[in-house]
């Protein structure tokens, strides 16, 4: 992304400039593609490594833990205590017990605090894995999301708070700022835009939002890790040169609600595999 010198351009030229730069990298990266695709094909044949995360997450979900030594099995992810099946396809949603719209990871932290007795800090610690440092949160998320595989996204905007948070996510999507004066929309509101080899989905269309939203978390072949939607959005905000969002912040929930709702009707298909 360093090659985008958008800050030198007048604001009006930004979207066009971004599109041009995005196309330019494609040819250069062509050579690496064959090797990457071969690696990818081999992994596909062997199954998705994300299954290991799902299995580890299920174990964590069912294992008594924390100061109270209880499992997460009675966690209410929105469909009642203990119901994991289909819960993710309806998130983010309004929760009457907290009076808030929460995404999966905010809710998971809430359950770890209220059921297991962890402090909020403990429940939010280590959300993203790094080499040699695995993340329980990523594993739990891989398990929970896998229990919605094949189900249509069904995110409601019934409660006034859901409407408010959706509008906030929409506003955030178009909000320009940072050194480049980019918004999410700069990269994700046009059809057929690319950076290097990566197609940038138009997240305002149902097709684009479905393809993007329903395939996270994903096992990243290039990183050897499972990455969550939280991480995806964190990474895009970083590329946008926005301040780093706090893990589990309401801004991420608002963006997620906006994207998830736009993806309604699409079959949830994660955890998937991506390059
Ligand atoms: C500078 C361009 C840029 C901006 C601005 C940007 N993104 Fe991205 N986005 C990317 C790139 C590049 C990828 C693919 C990255 C990869 O595959 O590693 C991506 C991927 C994504 C994906 C996953 C798509 C898929 O099919 O898997 C989502 C969702 C997403 N971005 C949302 C956002 C949101 C929301 C914002 C605003 C907060 C945003 N992006 C801002 C460049 C950008």
Automatic annotation (TrEMBL):
It is found in: Periplasm. It holds the Pfam family SoxA-TsdA_cyt-c. Keywords: Electron transport, Heme, Iron, Metal-binding, Periplasm, Signal, Transferase, Transport. SUPFAM superfamilies: Cytochrome c. This is SoxAX cytochrome complex subunit A. Its EC number is 2.8.5.2. It is an enzyme of class 2 (transferase). Belongs to the SoxA family. It catalyses: S-sulfanyl-L-cysteinyl-[SoxY protein] + thiosulfate + 2 Fe(III)-[cytochrome c] = S-(2-sulfodisulfanyl)-L-cysteinyl-[SoxY protein] + 2 Fe(II)-[cytochrome c] + 2 H(+); L-cysteinyl-[SoxY protein] + thiosulfate + 2 Fe(III)-[cytochrome c] = S-sulfosulfanyl-L-cysteinyl-[SoxY protein] + 2 Fe(II)-[cytochrome c] + 2 H(+). The keyword NAD does not apply. It comes from Cupriavidus malaysiensis. PROSITE patterns: TAT. The keyword Metal-binding applies. Residues 57-153 form the Cytochrome c domain.
